Amino acid sequence: xxxxxxxxxxxxxxxxxxxxxxxxxxxxxxxxxxxxxxxxxxxxxxxxxxxxxxxxxxxxxxxxxxxxxxxxxxxxxxxxxxxxxxxxxxxxxxxxxxxxxxxxxxxxxxxxxxxxxxxxxxxxxxxxxxxxxxxxxxxxxxxxxxxxxxxxxxxxxxxxxxxxxxxxxxxxxxxxxxxxxxxxxxxxxxxxxxxxxxxxxxxxxxxxxxxxxxxxxxxxxxxxxxxxxxxxxxxxxxxxxxxxxxxxxxxxxxxxxxxxxxxxxxxxxxxxxxxxxxxxxxxxxxxxxxxxxxxxxxxxxxxxxxxxxx
Length: 310
Hints:
By secondary structure, the protein is α+β, with helices and mostly antiparallel strands. 61% of the residues lie in helices and 10% in strands. The radius of gyration is 26 Å and the shape is elongated.
């Protein structure tokens, strides 16, 4: 006997949040800043501003991807794609994280080279373009902040803009130091600091999205505790083939084969056991699993199955 706690997975995509308006507005703001900073980087010759502009270019691409992913994730599920396109947001976030990581590594390498041979940088103009970038980034952050925890996609988009804001602060700081002291290496130092901020955040997001694609157990869900709780349900003898994964943000799933006493099928205990199992994973752990599937088996059924794991 098998049961799901939802009548049909076909409706799974209906829970996806719509953040397209926020992403569209942030994309428009960021594209405008990109044009201004691109001119500024060419005019001033600043590494910090060039890096911030390159990062801004990845932001525009990332926000465009995020906007596309947000639209695709709202498409209804079908008999061919039973979860719809909910996982597109994970792919989009992973792609953005990979690009951010590449930019961060480039910044660190270029920054070290410029520490050795610092070029001349126009400090006054650098301040102007740094302020333009900072104001625009703060506006984008304000637009995205309300939904930044809603999905991997929104989190990646917010992280892109946050890193750009930090980059703009670095550009301004470098310009002030150069203007007041004449120390041209301040530009390279600012670039290195920006890179140091980008790399760990991008790496963390890349690992998290990779874990989703590898169908790792959702963070915060202790499968050993789940197994122990299932074994406490009346008439349950053992559990095998216990799996848990995250389809997309806010959509953890769990399945298991549960061996119960043979007389459960004779005396009508099975439906109640299914109810108890679904309640036990839906509200007793840090991660509430609303979509669970349990297969109830008599003790002798194991001989008819392929080899299982514990």
